[in-house]
């Protein structure tokens, strides 16, 4: 069941210009090339495959599937280790997202839903970003690189 919680307040959101929220639905802006049909995230003004500037933006689906994931055990400043990073295939692109609340790396093929969540912070500020959570609140299963 989709979360009915409102997105967390944040001092800064990574990718805010590409992230769209409509109630509990989160989507991302994806660029599609009109010349070669390549797709890109984050969006861009020219195709990185054929260099055409004939591109247009679409909104992604709200759900995708895990390609690979990993538990990060040594974190940069501001991040609390361990945390999970997940490559997700969604709407013809592969993107890297945090998996907040996950303790283990989700297995390849696990269905996930886009959301917005805190990914780092200190006592004074919070950093949020687009993120993924298992569909239907299912627990992630070990399967990614450790």
SSE blueprint and pairings:
Blueprint: E1 12-14, E2 19-22, E3 25-33, E4 39-40, E5 55-59, E6 63-72, E7 83-90, E8 93-98, E9 111-121, E10 126-134
Structure description:
The protein is built from no helices and ten strands. The chain is 0% helix and 46% strand. A hairpin with a 2-residue loop joins strand 2 (19-22) and strand 3. With 146 residues, the protein is mainly β. The protein has strands at 12-14, 19-22, 25-33, 39-40, 55-59, 63-72, 83-90, 93-98, 111-121, 126-134. The strands form two sheets. It has a six-stranded mixed beta sheet, with no helix packed on it. Strands 2, 3, 4 and 5 form a four-stranded antiparallel beta sheet that branches.
Largest sheet: spatial strand order: 1-10-9-6-7-8
Strand content bin: over 45%
Number of helices: 0
Secondary structure tally: strands: 10
How is the quaternary structure best described? single chain
Residue stretches low in confidence (pLDDT < 50, at least 5 long) are 1-8, 142-146
What percent of the residues sit in helical stretches (DSSP H or I)?
Answer: under 10%
Essential attributes:
single chain; 146 residues; mainly beta; disordered C terminus; disordered N terminus; four-stranded antiparallel β-sheet; 10 strands
Short précis:
It contains no helices and 10 strands.
């Amino acid at each position: 069941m989709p979360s009915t919680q409102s997105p967390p307040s944040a001092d800064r959101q990574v990718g805010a210009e590409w992230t769209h929220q409509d109630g509990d639905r989160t989507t991302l802006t994806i660029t599609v090339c009109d010349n070669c049909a390549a797709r890109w995230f984050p969006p861009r003004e020219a195709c990185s495959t054929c260099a055409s500037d004939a591109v247009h933006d679409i909104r992604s689906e709200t759900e995708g599937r895990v390609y690979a994931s990993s538990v990060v055990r040594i974190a940069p400043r501001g991040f609390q280790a361990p945390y999970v990073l997940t490559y997700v295939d969604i709407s013809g692109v592969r993107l890297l997202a945090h998996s907040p609340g996950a303790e283990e790396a989700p297995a390849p093929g696990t269905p996930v839903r886009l959301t917005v969540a805190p990914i780092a912070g200190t006592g004074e500020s919070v950093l949020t970003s687009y993120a993924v959570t298992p569909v239907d609140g299912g627990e992630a299963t070990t399967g990614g690189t450790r």
